[in-house]
Amino acid sequence: MMPSLFIAHGAPSLALEENAYTEFLQQLGQELPKPKAIVLFSAHWESTTQLVSSVANYETIYDFGGFQPELYQIKYPAQGHEETTAEIQRLFADAGIPVESDSVRGLDHGAWVVLRLLYPNADVPVVALSVNRYLSNEQQYQVGQALASLREQDVLVIGSGGTVHNLRQLNWESAGVDPWAMAFDNWLQDKLMSWDTASLFAYDKLAPSAQAAVPTPEHFVPLLLAMGAGDQNKKASLLFKAYQYGNLSLSCWKFD
């Protein structure tokens, strides 16, 4: 059975960097069994209705500004997967989750930065899914749960976001880690490892520095989506943890 993964996508410039995190993601892509398809929730595709991509051939979206010119030359020509799109629509319908198809949108940097590191040849089909920040945390988990059976079909479910993601707090010159960011992630790690969903669903009230770490929820939501997809065995493993710019978390969680 495939795991589900939460992967922090960091800043768009991660696509050009060579560091411990990019090396880890490259190695992870080699170590995982090659999936039939990838289903990816990106924090940068927001919609109040759950959308599932039915694109045959994706364009690469540059949904950022002010970065290195080379970033805008990168292409990630992934293909869609009609069979998996249809299965997702069926699973959501069975779970009573309204879903609509999108046949136009390409892959944003929350998707292609991660995918390019895992599968640089763009040789695994991709189905992109939107994120709805307005659902409750428990509902986010349930959206992931609805797709859990995909893992038995050799489909890799990924949530792409960031546990600590506050652009106003970034220190682009810092080589250290802000204590408040570490405190939030340490609390999160404890609750994930013990599969304490009650606390996780109330993280915004219980976790230290939650408002600083998660000023808006769209980057945190993919963690709950990936966790929900791993609900069957309820086993969480922290595969990588680091920070950039003082507090931008670069973490990867695997849910078996």
Question: In words, what does this structure look like?
Answer:
There is one protein chain. By secondary structure, this protein is an alpha/beta fold. Helices cover 32% and strands 21% of the residues. It is built from nine helices and eight strands. The chain has a six-stranded mixed beta sheet with strand order 5-2-6-1-8-7, with helices on both faces. Helix 2 links the parallel strand 3 and strand 4. Helix 4 (137-146) packs across helix 9 (221-229). The chain is globular, with a radius of gyration of 17 Å. The termini are close together. The mean pLDDT is 97. Residues 21-247 form the Extradiol ring-cleavage dioxygenase class III enzyme subunit B domain. One of its GO terms (molecular function) is dioxygenase activity.
Widest beta sheet: strand line-up: 5-2-6-1-8-7
Number of strands: 8
> Radius of gyration, rounded?
17 Å
Which structural class matches the secondary elements?
alpha/beta
Distance between the termini: 8 Å
- So how many helices? 9
Any low-confidence stretches, pLDDT <50, length ≥5?
none
What order do the SSEs take from the amino end to the carboxyl end, as H and E? EHEEHEHEHEHHHHHEE
What is the percentage of strand-forming residues?
Answer: 15-25%
Largest sheet: 6 strands, mixed
Helix content: 25-40%
| Average residue pLDDT | 97
Inertia-based shape: globular
